[in-house]
Amino acid sequence: MPVFSQRVALAVRNVKAFLKVEAGVVRGGVPESGGGTLGAAVRPSGAGQDQRIEQLRRELREKDGENARLRSRLAAGSFHLPGGGVKPENMIWMFGSGRTGSSWLSTMMADLEGHARWNEPYVGELFGSAYYLRAGDRMRGRKDYALGDDYREAWIRSIRNFVLEGANARFSGLGENGYLAIKEPNGSIGAPLLAEAFPESRMILLVRDPRDVVSSAMAAQRKGSWGEGWRANGGGDSLADTDPDEFARQWANMYTVSLGNARDAYEAHKGPKAVVRYEDLRADTLRTMRRLYSTLDIQVGEQELARVVQMHAWENVPENKKGPDKPHRKATPGGWKEDLTPEQARIVEELTVAVLDEFYPRWSTSYGRVKNLDP
Questions:
Q1: Which of 32, 192, 283, 332 places its Cα 20 to 30 Å from the Cα of 48?
Q2: What is the pTM of this model?
Q3: What's the confidence (pLDDT) of residue 318?
């Protein structure tokens, strides 16, 4: 197994353990008070049973009415089946990891003529977590499991329809010639499934130095910062405050899993695709955007690209919307040197060394050594 894949597999095990603790997952049955079976405890009887039957009848009548309305819409030509609106080949999936500049890049893309942005639908998280994190080989081998391997073709097709119907419902005005940028870095765990469901779509693999990613996430989750509300443990005390070394370890593991699955999807994808490093986007935004659209084989005029680049330039972000506790924090590659302790940087480097070696071949360690120098 390649080194990168070995590290991703190890990180998956670490993330699984973390998720079980965070969610309070306990294997086994649900204890009942007073003995007996759970079914007996909740089964209605007498008047309660009659009320339940009547409720079910009402629900069936409502379903019949809904089905009749759908049949009428279909007969009138006002119901769009999957694929009737946004073209799958005009979807641009953006995978990688959170805190990699995906908001910046996707908002620039959304402001281009004929574009729209689907901001974090989490469809990759929905299916990817169930397939990669919550279920092992034994579960996926069960015929009754919804994402069982024996019926992969059927549920991959279902994922495709699920996404297409959602896109068509939300972006009905985009038209068949419009492009939909789907910002899905936090759903990258499911990137291989989405790539399989949409082989003709376009794809962006967005990469950033993992030390800057961890630094940005840690700043966001500290008490009083803008991201305090989306902590993994539901808004309580954050590891960013109570145990920043452990926070760095967990985020480095999750970065490895997220980017690892995104990279696997990218490698397997046969449609137009491009790698974008945050550092390149920051150093020369217009040139990087020009290269991106050329690689994706999408025609966009130079003036149009220059317009959105200027509109979303760091210098044009209002001063009250950027700073250490704001979503627009630094926009400075290498800022981790000021934010992370040497120990935190070392932790991240050890867990993400395969990422650094592949995408930053001349990267410098936190203790000054330069890795992978050309001979």
A1: 32
A2: 0.78
A3: 76
Nearest partner of 122 among 185, 66, 73, judged by Cα: 185
Q: Quick one: pLDDT at residue 18?
A: 55
Domains and CATH numbers, the chain: 3-13+80-359 (3.40.50.300)
| 204 sits in which H/E element | strand 202-207
Closest to 110 measured CA to CA, from 169, 181, 177, 202: 181
The DSSP-derived string for 161-202 is: HHHHHHHHHH-TTS-TT-EEEEE-GGGGGGHHHHHHH-TTSE
In this predicted model, what pLDDT tens digit does every residue of 188-207 receive, in sequence order? 999 999 999 999 999 999 99
pLDDT tens-digit map of 20-70: 544 443 333 333 333 333 333 334 445 666 666 777 677 667 666 655 554
What tokens were used for 60?
């069936």
Contact indicator for 307, 332 with CB cutoff of 8 Å: no
For 4, the 3-state DSSP assignment is helix
Rounded distance between C-alpha atoms, residue 86 and residue 178, angstroms = 7
Radius of gyration of the chain (CA): 24
**Distance from chain centroid for Cα 255:** 11
Average pLDDT, the chain: 82
Q: Which residue has the higher pLDDT, 370 or 358?
A: 358
pLDDT of residue 31: 34
Q: Which amino acid is at 316?
A: N
**CA pair distance 312, 112, nearest whole angstrom:** 12
| Paired strand residues for 117 | 181
| Sheet containing 115-119: order of strands | 115-119, 179-183, 91-95, 202-207, 273-277
CB 113 within 8 A of CB 176: no
The runs of H, that is alpha helices, within the chain are 3-23, 38-42, 47-76, 102-110, 123-128, 137-140, 152-170, 191-197, 210-221, 239-242, 244-268, 278-283, 285-295, 302-311, 336-339, 342-351, 353-359
Least reliable range by pLDDT among 36-50, 79-93, 155-169, 317-331: 36-50
Supply φ then ψ for residue 277, to 5 degrees.
Answer: -95, 135
Q: What pLDDT is attached to residue 41? A: 34
What are 348's two structure tokens? 């991240």
